Structure formats: structure tokens, C-alpha cells
Amino acid sequence: MQVILSHINLDFDGFASMVAAKKLYPKAKLVLPTKQGKSLERFLALYRDSFSLYYPNQINWENVTEIILVDIASLQRIGEVSYLIDKEKVEFIVYDHHQPNDMNVKAKTAMIELVGATVTLLVEEMRSKEITISSFEATIYALGLYTDTGAFTYLNTTPRDLIAGSYLLECGANLEIISKFSETPLQDEEQKLLQSLLLHSEEHYFDGVDILVAYHQQKDYTGGLALLARKALEMTGTDALFFVVEMGKRTFIVGRSTSERIDVLPIIKMFSGGGHQKAASAMVKNGNFQEILAIVRGSIKEVIKPSLTAKDIMSSPVKVISTITSIEEAGKMMLRYGHTGFPVLEDGKLVGIISRRDIDKAKHHGLGHAPVKGYMSTDPTTIHSSMSLEEVQNLMIAKNVGRLPVLEKDQLIGIISRTNVIEALHGEKIKSGQVIQQSSPLELSLARRMEKLIPHDILQLLKTIGEQADKLNYRAFMIGGVVRDLVIGRENEDIDIVVEGDGISFAKLLADYFGGTVRIHEKFGTATWKHPTGIKIDITSARTEYYDYPAALPNVEMSSLREDLFRRDFTINAMALQINTRDFGKLIDFFHGYQDIKQKKIRILYNLSFVEDPTRILRAVRFEQRFGFEMDKQTLELAHISVDKIASTSKARLAHELSILLREDYPVESLKRLSEIGVLQYLIGSTTCFGENKLRLLEDYKKLYDEITLALPRHRNRAWICYLIILLSGHDNRLQLLREFALDSSDLHTIDEVASIQLCDNSLANVTKLGELHLLFKKYSFEAIVCFSILHQLPSGERHMIKRYLIERVDIPNFINGEDLKTLNIPPSPIYTTILLELECLYLNQQVLSKEDALAFVKNKYCL
């Protein structure tokens, strides 16, 4: 016989899980505990006949061979039934959402997972087995789910609970019934008990959190302590509570918590109870009430996890201004840094704070020239670096202030804004006293991946650099593309290092230690260190950027790692890998770049990113094509909105980005994408430059170019400008535009070559040999010839001949030279050039294949 059991004082989650288990084990009998919770009693008073329910005395326990335990994993809380079970004979199946402990039964099958409600686990299993759920059953399951998660508001709620709830609603769960029975009004005796508990309560305040301990003694049993605990938390607003209630010969201990920092389970376990971190309970028979209460009081401090402090969450270094800074300049600085206020210092001491509101009022009255001293808020509220996050939050609310300067020994070391508090509350959590990012992989180590993808000599060099940083107490990181590629799984040996300290001094130290040379860029706080082995590493100080106007070049200032990463183009490029010895290979990801890589998304870090630097739109397209990613919806929308800023960007900057983009593997697709976004309209001043015919020409160029370079592995790619030449063909002002985009003399030369080849295109009609092509094309570059053949849409036969010619001309040998011609008594003159060119043509025609052939040809023609 199979039976389904749950705990005494049965609640909706336990009952719903029993009913759900019956669906999975249809032959099992539902055995109610002798005591149910008040809310469930009310429900069963109406719906009892809808279920086939048994009481323990209706079961022949000698015939029970299998027990399904739900919402419980031990026999301690099933009541007197535990004495009726032959534990040696019975096998157990367990479904539970409480933390496992040593008292759990040894089950043949156990599903114990820390979800918000046990019924979630059973709904998931029914769904996976495609078991049909009626609307009434869905309502029962949803009652258990809603009550045990506080309608998805309790901290133990997981995404799986929400998915289960959504599925139950799809199955027809009745929210009216759920609402009616999940909110149970207190009966008279319950109200009296709650009043007594609140009357006999004491608050314990430790490290920024409030814990209520309430106690009560009575002779008769009153159920519903779990409901009373929830009500008391709502009424008092404390972070956690413990009830110690003596009822006759039994003492009940109930713990509830609403804070990640408070785990009530350790205290409950002292009394052999169970549950989870946020909700647990125990019962002691014939215990000493005062001793139990004393144990609870004395153990409270031990269940509180360390708090985040002001020092953990503050922004540092702090942007400050002096008392003599003008209102106008202060306003510009606020715009520059995106701040809404600045601390004001005089002689190194904090004397006030000036806000955006103060600035605006002063400017409205024409006082932009006046110093901020006369308009700042004096006697600012400050905090010590050791103040807990909870205390900071309460102080901000009580004082209604948006920023709190952080002091140590009267020195300003940081500042906390509302944003800092919000990020700490919703972006981070505490685990074993350490701060970790909740939804980003800050604990992820890429050390093993580094060993696979970074050459051994460079990896060892990075470790040694990390050791040198340790000696200076600098935090040192690899940043940028190399980190991105490590996450993706691509090789990249282009190493950039940023230090939270003086990057230039650090580069000099490395050169002194390892040898090599250092090239310094003082304005940007950067240095390039060339190792004696030839390895080049860019080393920078952590820095931030601001732009005086859209599309301007950035100004740079020293800052923290977070701000350094925030100034970068996309989240996938805004990650860092720590190389200090203790944390070597640790990924630092403030902006969820790791997640975006996994989702194949290109996402900017802030809304004005494309406005400040429109060339980032070209970079976004480049990364889309290179990695097969896509801009996320908002980034694409902002690219469309900001595309007009391309027109005010210098041609040199645009050409630099274009040259990189068009040297990638997908230049045609990139140009097509730029056209879709609207970049080409502002880039070259035309909306009709990318029709179907132009697209076909670009594709033909790419195909022919690739076919030729496949046979020439040593060829250096200079073809990027040719894509622009084809793109601009037919444009009224094409030559001038092309010259504006040319990066160097080589690009200019290619532009001129393509234009000049056009003069001889008619000569190709009668060409049948490669040597004849050589006479026409010898002086022209590889790229110009390919571009010419596509622009003039030469027939496939002529293209094939040009392809053969370009491949073979690379290896034309110099069989003879000027000295050989002198030996043949041919006086030096321009005839030498004619002879040597003629020999090259004959070689391509397979008529001269050796030095002997060349000498014989010259003798026969020129020495008679």
C-alpha cells in the first residue's frame, strides 16, 4: 500500500503537494495529519468531500510498503503517525523544499530543491509527464504556491515558482478562491495571542538589522503561529522575528526573516526543528520555557551575516569642487560627469554640498559668475565608512538626502548616492561575508581558459606582472577585446592592462624589472611597454572620459576600474580579468557583458554612447558580423536615432573605423547593415548608393578578391578602399569623397590607379595571353586591377584571365639583370627596362622558363 503524508499543522502548500502527489501516484491514499492549520481547516470545511481523504486510524499500517512524504523530509513532524510506521519495511519517496538535514529519511527517490513552495516541484513533474490538470486542481496547487511564497513576494521565491504559477493560471486556477482563502482573518483567540506576543516583545538591534523576540505562555493550544508571525512582521516592520510560545507541556519556537542577512534556521535547529533560512519552526516537549527563551536571545547575534558597509558601496575617488569654483563651472562639471551634486572642499576639509537644484537657481538669477560658497548647503550630513548599508538606507530616508559623503578621520574618502544604495540592494547580495554580483558572473574564473588560449610565455608574463602589482598594492587587470575573446573561446594575443594606480610608473617599473622599452603618452595616462622578446603591452591607469560636445574627441581623467570600463563602447568589451596572484583569472563584469555574449547581443552601456561617439555604430556593425551577434532592440533604436551625428564626425575617424570594418571577413554584409541603419546616407551623402546592382558588384569584388588571395597567403590586405570606390561609383563627387577617406598615400595611389586604368579598358577585348595583360597592368596594384575588372563588369572569361595573371605575376623570376645585359655588350640605356619587361611577358606566356632561355632570347633579338 502507498500512502501520502505531510507535516502536522498542515498548511496549503503541504495539502496542495499531497493532492498533486496523488496525481503522480494515483493508487496512494491521502492521509491527513491530526492537526491542520486554521486556513486549511476553513477550506476543508467547505471542500472536504471533493477529496478522498483518510485519517491515520483508518489505515492498516502493517500493509504500508511505500510512503510519499511531501513538504517534509523527516518523520519528526508528522505527529503520532511516526510510531505506526515500520521504518525497516517501508520505502520513502520525498518531495520537499526545505534545507536537508541529518534527520531526513533515507529515500529511494528524493526531490529536495530550494524553491519557494514544494508544490512547484510536483507541478513541474506533472507538466513534464504531460498530466492533465483540471481548473479545480490548479486552484488547489496555486493556493499552496501563493501562500508559501506570499504571492511571490517572499525572499525564498524563485523563477521556477513564477513559471509554475503562470502554468496553473493557464490551467484555469481561480484567483477569487485563492484570494479568499489565502488571506485568513484572525479569530478572537488568535488576535488575543498576537496582542500578547506584541506586548511581550523586545527588539534586538545589531549591525543595522532589527530582530523581534516575542514570548507568551498559556495552557491551551492555539494554532496558526505561522500566520501570526507573518502578521507581526508586517505590523512591526522588523527584519526578522522569533516567537517562543508555551502551550501546555509544549513550547513552540517559530522563526521568520525578510532579510538576506538573517538566517533563522540555525537557532531552530538547536531545538531539532526544520525549515529554511527565512521560515523555520520547532517544538519542544516538557522544555524549560525560560531556558529556551534565553537560548534564543543569546543566539541572535550569531545568525546575522556581515553587513555591507559604506566603504563597500561608496563611489571613489570623489569628484569635488572648491568653495571658489564658479556656479557656471560647477554646472559644466555636473553635465560632464553626469552628477547631480558635488561635495565642496575648503583647505582639504568638507564644508558643504552643491546640488543641481542650487546651480539652476543661481544661474536663473544671473549668478553664474559667483562662487559656489554662497549657494551650497552647509553642514552636510556625513557618515563614517563603517556604517552598515541598512543604516545608510534609513538615514537617506530619514534625512531625505540623495548623497552622503563618507569620511575617515575627517578626510573625504568616498560618496554614496541613491544609485549606490539601489545597486547594493538590488544588484548584489552577501554570501559568506563576501559581496558578489547577483546576476553577473563575478565568481567565474577564466584561469583554465587562459591556459588553453593564451601562449604559455605570455601567460607566465601576466602572472609575473600580477606579482609586481601586488608589491605596489595595485589591482591589475586585463581588459577589452582579449577578455571578450576568452569568454567567447577565441585566441587573442593583443594584451591591454589597466591598473588602479599610476599606469605610467607601473610600465616603467616593469621595464626596469624585465627590460625592454617604454613609450609614454602622458596626456592619456598610458604607456606601451615593449618586452625584450618583442611582446607589446599597453598599460593604462584606470580612467574615465567625458565629451565636450557630440562626436568630439574624449577628454580623459584618472578614475576607478568601474568607471574605466563604463567609458567603453559595448558591454562585451567592458569586462576585466584580474591578474593579481590571489585572484588570477577572476572575471570582473559590472555590466553583464558575459550574459550578453551568451545571448549573442551587442549592447551599449549608456543611452548617449552613440551621440558622444558615432563611430561606435560602425563598431557595433563590425562586431555583429564578426561574431554573428545582433544589437539588442534598444541599442539598434539608439543607433537609428543617433545616426545623423555621423555627419559631424571627422572623415579621418570614420575612415579609420571603415578600414577596420572592411578588412574583416564580411565587408559586404557590413555595408548592407550600415545602409539599413542609415549610416551610408550621412557617410557619403547619398541615399541611393546601395541598390541591388551595387550590392552585386560588391559581392563580385569580394568573391574574386578572395579567390585570388586564397592562392597568395602572404598577400597584405589593402582592399578596403576598393569597397568604397565601388560603393561611390557613379557618385558626382566620388573622387573628392574618396580622397577624404584615404588614410595614407597607398590608399590615394589605389584611388588614382583605378581611375587611370579606365583609359585602357577597351584594350582587353583582343588580349589572349597573360604576357599581353602584363603590358597593360604591370604598373598597377593588385587591388586596383581587381576593382577595375568588377567596375567595368568584364565577362567571366576576361576575369578568369586576370585572376590567373595576378596569381602568376607574383612569382615572376628575375632570370637576368643589368649586369648580364652589360656582359652581352648592350650599353646601359632605357632599352634595359624594355628588355626586362619583355622577358617577364615571355615568362608569363611560358616562352622563357630559365636563365638560359632568357639569354638566348636577348642574344637573338638584341645582339645580332
Automatic annotation (TrEMBL):
One of its GO terms (molecular function) is nucleotide binding. PROSITE patterns: CBS (PS51371). Gene3D superfamilies: 3.10.310.30, Beta Polymerase, domain 2, CBS-domain, cca-adding enzyme, domain 2, inorganic pyrophosphatase (n-terminal core). The keyword Transcription does not apply. It comes from the Bacteria. InterPro entries: CBS_dom (IPR000644), CBS_dom_sf (IPR046342), DDH_dom (IPR001667), DHH_sf (IPR038763), DHHA1_dom (IPR003156), NT_sf (IPR043519), PolA_pol_head_dom (IPR002646), PolyA_RNA-bd (IPR032828). Keywords: CBS domain, Magnesium, Metal-binding, Nucleotide-binding, Nucleotidyltransferase, RNA-binding, Transferase, tRNA processing, tRNA-binding. Residues 314-372, 376-432 form the CBS domain. Its cofactor is Mg(2+). GO terms for biological process: tRNA processing. Pfam families: CBS, DHH, DHHA1, PolyA_pol, PolyA_pol_RNAbd. Belongs to the tRNA nucleotidyltransferase/poly(A) polymerase family. This is CBS domain-containing protein. It comes from Anaerobacillus alkaliphilus.
